[in-house]
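User: I'm putting together a small comparison set for a docking exercise, and I want a reference complex before I start. The sequence is below, and the ligand is zinc ion. Could you produce the 3D structure with the ligand included, as structure tokens?
Assistant: Of course. I'll restate your input first, then give the structure tokens for the complex.
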Amino acid sequence: MSKQSKGAANRLHHPEPEQRAQHARWLASLFADPASLASQTAAAYSELLDEVLLDVAVEAHREAKLGLAPPPPPPAPPPPRPLDPLPGARGPTDVFGQAHPPSAMEQITCMKCGRKVAAGRFAPHLEKCLGGGRQSSRQATRRGAG
Ligand SMILES: [Zn+2]
């Protein structure tokens, strides 16, 4: 390809706005006459496209009517059900069937002093047992203020 024709090809693919407008006016003039080659080519292409689309639509309709269409996707499975409560679990249970939180009346052995404490009272007991909690924080505040 020579330098000149390369430049012409480039101008064809990336024409200036005025050149594009000129090209559009030229195309419009071609389609203005229904007997022109451009008009008849576009009409033939349009007819072919309509024909192909109609074929696809008729075939899809026939398949649906005769039950030849692929079956619809199966319905979604039901959501998983929580497990039954474990034997001995009291109160509300989680999805694994475990009582959570444990019943407040359940006895828990303190790992510090070894006493058995009701589960509902275990947190305050542990605070006292470990020397923290509200009492010691109040004492610390009093110490800091006084
Ligand atoms: Zn304790």
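Strands lie at 107-109, 116-118. The chain has a mean pLDDT of 81.
User: Thanks, that's exactly what I needed.
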